[in-house]
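User: Here's a structure from my thesis project, written as structure tokens. My advisor, Dr. K., wants to see whether a designed sequence matches the one we expressed. Can you design one independently, without my sequence as a hint?
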């Protein structure tokens, strides 16, 4: 821990490393770990619970008056009405962990009056520690990090998460991939959103998007991204996204090019944009179904991109498209500064 870090961040780092030690010990014999299923394709292990307990114990020993919002135990621990709320994901990437696939992390964030002020994302397999304090920058192992300097979308590596729950709109994701894959250098699905956001902050990945995420998946990573000079919001570009279950993050000029591509797929899109998205989803699905029995994979990929349209001429050349005017949401949302909001109290 660094003497230059904020005291609350130092405690969060201590908690993350304690959890990481538990995870690393369990990873030595992952076949022996007991696994249960919360819902289809959504797993929890005894390691998740042990890691979460270690984090909560460390945080509350230092700050007994703080609140806790944790993935596995919810609000069972800590003060219920505190303006200080720790948001914890003890093992982001559980499915990866139980398969021995070394992409998972510990995520801890502190919200003060609903605003994220401290963040830690710890990758125990690589001993990589990502930290941020609002206004003080983002760091990887005490080295200052910044988002990527790339500006051309066709040079960018974009990470995402695929639908895996019952009821997820898989066909919509296929349409999004059909829109993005021909425009980008690559699309990746590592499987741990907090680590994806940390990699955006470090410039290892140029952008990230996903739907269906919970606040503990994105809270810490969101501060890492903004403190590293990036932008983060929902698919329409609005910054009040933490509890909206859709997230887009990236370097500013890349973010500006992705918002026009993804906005029509947002649940906050206008009626006209939603109709456009539905038509695109239907067209991609029909084309895939039509070609699946009588074309090579190369033909399917090539033909699925024929009807792509660039959002504007500048974006077609790889330059940043102007960010769209903020859209009004289709439903009322809690003010993040309001301590009566969902996670601020």
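Assistant: Designed independently from the structure alone:
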């Amino acid at each position: 821990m660094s003497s230059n870090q904020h005291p609350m961040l130092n405690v969060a780092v201590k908690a993350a490393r304690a959890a990481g030690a538990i995870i690393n010990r369990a990873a030595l014999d992952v076949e022996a770990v007991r696994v249960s299923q919360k819902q289809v394709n959504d797993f929890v292990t005894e390691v998740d619970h042990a890691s979460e307990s270690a984090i909560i114990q460390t945080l509350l020993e230092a700050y007994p008056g703080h609140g806790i919002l944790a993935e596995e135990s919810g609000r069972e621990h800590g003060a219920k009405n505190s303006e200080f709320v720790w948001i914890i994901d003890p093992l982001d990437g559980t499915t990866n962990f139980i398969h021995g696939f070394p992409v998972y992390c510990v995520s801890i964030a502190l919200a003060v009056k609903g605003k994220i002020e401290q963040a830690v994302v710890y990758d125990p397999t690589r001993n990589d520690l990502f930290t941020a304090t609002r206004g003080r920058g983002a760091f990887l192992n005490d080295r200052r990090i910044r988002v990527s300097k790339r500006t051309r979308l066709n040079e960018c590596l974009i990470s995402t998460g695929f639908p895996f729950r019952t009821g997820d709109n898989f066909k919509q994701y296929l349409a999004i991939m059909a829109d993005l894959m021909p425009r980008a250098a690559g699309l990746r699905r590592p499987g741990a959103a907090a680590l994806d956001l940390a990699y955006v902050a470090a410039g290892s990945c140029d952008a990230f998007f996903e739907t269906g995420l919970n606040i503990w998946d994105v809270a810490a990573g969101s501060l890492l991204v903004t403190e590293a000079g990036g932008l983060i919001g929902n698919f329409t570009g609005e910054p009040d996204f933490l509890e909206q279950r859709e997230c887009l993050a990236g370097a500013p000029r890349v973010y500006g090019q992705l918002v026009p591509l993804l906005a029509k797929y947002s649940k906050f899109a206008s009626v006209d944009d939603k109709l456009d998205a539905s038509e695109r989803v239907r067209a991609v699905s029909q084309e895939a179904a039509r070609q699946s029995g009588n074309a090579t994979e190369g033909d399917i990929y090539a033909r699925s991109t024929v009807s792509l349209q660039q959002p504007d001429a500048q974006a077609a050349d790889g330059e940043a498209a102007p960010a769209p005017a903020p859209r009004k949401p289709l439903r009322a949302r809690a003010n993040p500064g309001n301590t009566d909001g969902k996670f601020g109290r």
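When you compare it with your expressed construct, this may help: The first helix runs from residue 7 to 27.
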